[in-house]
Amino acid sequence: MRHKFIYRNLALAIAFLFTLATYSQDGPKWVELFNGKNLNGWKKLNGTADFKVQEGAIVGIAKLNTPNTFLATEKKYGNFILEFEFKVDDFLNSGVQFRSDFKSPKGPVYGYQFEIDPAQRAWTGGIYDEARRGWLYPLTYNPQAKTAFRNGAWNTARIEAIGNTIITWVNGSPCSYIEDDLSPEGFIALQVHSIGDEKDAGKTVAFRNIRICTTEPEKYRTVTENGKFADIPEINCIPNTLTAKETSEGWQLLWDGKSTTGWRGAKIPTFPTGGWSIEDGILKVHKSDGGESTNGGDIITDRKYRNFILKVDFKITTGANSGIKYFVNPELNKGAGSAIGCEFQILDDDNHPDAKLGVKGNRTLGSLYDLIPSRRDGDFTFRKNDFNTAMIIVKDNKVEHYLNGYKVVEYERNTQMWKALVDYSKYANWPDFGNLAEGHILLQDHGDEVWFRNIKIKEIK
Amino acid sequence: MRHKFIYRNLALAIAFLFTLATYSQDGPKWVELFNGKNLNGWKKLNGTADFKVQEGAIVGIAKLNTPNTFLATEKKYGNFILEFEFKVDDFLNSGVQFRSDFKSPKGPVYGYQFEIDPAQRAWTGGIYDEARRGWLYPLTYNPQAKTAFRNGAWNTARIEAIGNTIITWVNGSPCSYIEDDLSPEGFIALQVHSIGDEKDAGKTVAFRNIRICTTEPEKYRTVTENGKFADIPEINCIPNTLTAKETSEGWQLLWDGKSTTGWRGAKIPTFPTGGWSIEDGILKVHKSDGGESTNGGDIITDRKYRNFILKVDFKITTGANSGIKYFVNPELNKGAGSAIGCEFQILDDDNHPDAKLGVKGNRTLGSLYDLIPSRRDGDFTFRKNDFNTAMIIVKDNKVEHYLNGYKVVEYERNTQMWKALVDYSKYANWPDFGNLAEGHILLQDHGDEVWFRNIKIKEIK
Q1: Contact: A416, B428; criterion CB under 8 Å
Q2: Mutation site for A-interface testing, chosen from B406, B421, B429 by largest number of A Cβ within 10 Å
Q3: pTM (2 decimals)?
C-alpha cells in the first residue's frame, strides 16, 4: 500500500511538471467542485433519483418513474476548463450539464450536456442540448472519437468552454467542437437519466475529482501542434456566420442571412417578388396551395458548383414538402413544375402523402427524391420542431446526403447502374439526368411553409 | 540512292543476325509467296476488285458492286509461320485469310482471317472466321493490342498457326491467341473488302514481303520469357475442352460435355428426367410452351460459387427466351416459376415480346434481367445463328456481364444504390436480392429451345 502511495504521488508530480511545461509556468488555478465527503455546494433538480457519496465519488442511482434527475452546482460558471472522472454501468445513459439552467425547481433543466453513452452508439463526449435543441454534436460528426470511452472503467473528461467555443475530450481524445452563443453561462450538473425498464433500477453513474479553472482559462486552453484548438470537425451553431476555422478551410456563406444576393428564380432572371421572405436571418418559403413552383417558384444560386460540401439548415411546418436540389440545369424544364436536378428531399414524413408514394420510401425526408430512400436506424435524428442540418457532399461522381451529421444516402452517378435506376424513376426521360459536371443549387417552393438559414458551401477539388 | 541501298542492306544484315541469334543457329527456312514482280502463284476468288503489282507490292483496289475479293495462293498450308507487311487507306477494311477454302470459284471464301481494321474500332490483328463463325478473337479480348497498328504506314504482321494454336502479331505486339481445330489447312488470301459507298472506290490496300516458313515451324515459334507462346488472353474455340494454359490458370469445366454430372434440377434433388437432352457435346433445353420452368425446369450446379469468371456458350432459336443465373438460392422460391438469382438474360430480342417490356431495354439479351439494360454500340456482337459466349465476372460485390468479349453490363451489389434499383424491379420483395456471398449457377428452362455448351469456370480469390 505504501509503494502504491509513493507511485501515485510520483505520477501526480510528473503530471504536474508536464502541465507546467505544456500550459504555463504557474499552471491553471483549479477549484474542486466536490469536497470528496458530502454534497455541499450541490442541489438536486428536476427528478427524484438519489445521489450519495461513496469512496470519494458522487454516485447517482437510477430510479423508475422519475424524469431525468440532476445534481447541480449552486454557482454558475461562464468561461472555464472543467475536468472530472466518470464511470457508468452498462446501458445507463448519463451526462454532465454545463452553462445550464432550469425554468423552475422541478425543471426542466436545459442547456449543454457532455454526453455519457455506454450503449452501442458510443457517443460519449458528444454535446446534446438538453430540453432545448437536441443534438448539437453527435459523434457521427467525429466517428473516431467513439473509441475514446472505456466501458466499466473510470474515464477522464475535459470541457473547455471559452467564449463561443466549446470543446470536449474523453481520456485525452478530442470528441466534440462547437461554436455557439446561446448560453454564455450557467450551472454544472450531474445527470441520472430516467429509465424505462425495471432491470435498470439501481444502476449507477459515479463522478469524482471534479475540478474547474475559471481564472484566465484562455491561458490554459488546449492548443494543438498546428496552432488549432482541436483537430476535429467543428460545428458552428451560430446561424449565417463563419468561424475563423471555417474561413480558413474554405467555407463560404451561400446566403448572407439578410438579402437575396447570389440567388434568383429558377425560371426568371431575378429573385421572385413574392412567395419568399427574409426575417431574422431566416429565408422562408410561404404557404400557398402545396403545388410545385406555383407561387414564388424555386430559387437557384447565380453560380454553378462542381465539387462541394453544402450545408443548409431547414425547419419544416406540419405537412410540409420542399427540397434542396443540386446539379440543376434550369434550361431543361421550361414548362410547369420544379427545375430539374438531384433532390435532397425535405418532407414531413408523418403528414405529407408523398412519403408513402414512390417506391419503398424513396420520397421520404433525406432521400434522393424518387431514387434512393434515406437510411433509418438508431443514429438517424430529425427535429420536427426545430432546425435540422442537411449536408450534401459531391466529389465528382460520388455523392452523399447527411441529415444532422448522419449519412442517409450515398451513390455514384455517371455509371450504368445509375442510369438503370434513373430509367425506372420519374426522371427517366430527362436527358442524361444527374450526370452534369456542374450545376446550380436550388431551394424548392412546393407551396408549403419551410424555413432555411445557415446556407454555406465549401468547394473542393 | 546509293547510300540508301547500303543502309538497307546493312539493316537486313542486322535483322538476319538478330534472327539467327533469336531463333536458331540455322534460322527459319523462309519461302517468299510473292516474287515482287507479278502475281504468279496467286488466283483471284469471290469478287471482281482488281489487284496489281506496284513498287514491289501487291495492291488491291476497292470497287463498288462486288462482294469481298480475294487473291489466294494456289497452294494450301497447314502449320506455318507467315510474315508480311501491309498498308491500308483510311476506313478501308481488309484482311489476310489463312487455312481458308472456298466452296466454288465464285465463293464464298471462308476460314480464318487476320483482320486489318483502320477504323476507330481498331481490331487489326484480331481473328475473324470469314463466312463461317464470325469473330473468334475481337480485340475486346485484348484491348491493349488496339494500339499496335499504325494508320497510313507500313505495318508488319506475323501469324503462327501450329497445330490448334493460332497467334497473331502486329508490329511485334501479340494481338490474338486462339485454340481451334476446325480447319487444319488451307490457302492464304489477301482481301479487298466490298464497299458500300462510292467515295471509297479506288482506295487501296497493299501487301509486300510476304514470306512463309513451313519447315519445322514449331522450332521457330515465339516463346516469351516465362515460357508461354504469348502473354495475352487465350480463347479456346474447341468446345468442352481445356487447354494447358486454361488448366494452369485454374479453369475447370463446369459441364463435361456428355453427362449430367454436377447439375440438378433447381427444385428437385436430381437432374430433370425430361425437358433437357445432351447431344454431340450440346446441352439442349427443349421447346415446350414458352413458360417459366414449366417443362423440365431450371437446372443448377450442385456447388455454390463466390468469386468467379464463368463462360457459357449459347445458341438461340427464333423467338427464344432463356438465361444464366448466378447467386441463386433455390430455397427462396418454392412456388411456380424460375429460381431466384441475378440473371444474364438470353433472348431473341427481335422476336420475343419481353425485349420490349421492362424499362428501357432492361430485359434484352445480355442485360441483368429487369435491372440493367445491356450496352449496345459498335463493338457489340451477337450471332443469331451460331454460338455466342456469355461471360460473367464476379469479384465480391463487383459484377460484369460480357457478350462475345464485349462488356455489356457492370454493377456493384450490396450498395444503397443497388437496393434502390432492386426495389424498383420485379425482385423488390425477395429478401436481400442479389446480395448473397455465394450461390448456385443456373441454366433456365423458359420453354424455348436453346443450346448450351463449353461451360467453364475459374474461381478467383
Answers
A1: no
A2: B421
A3: 0.85
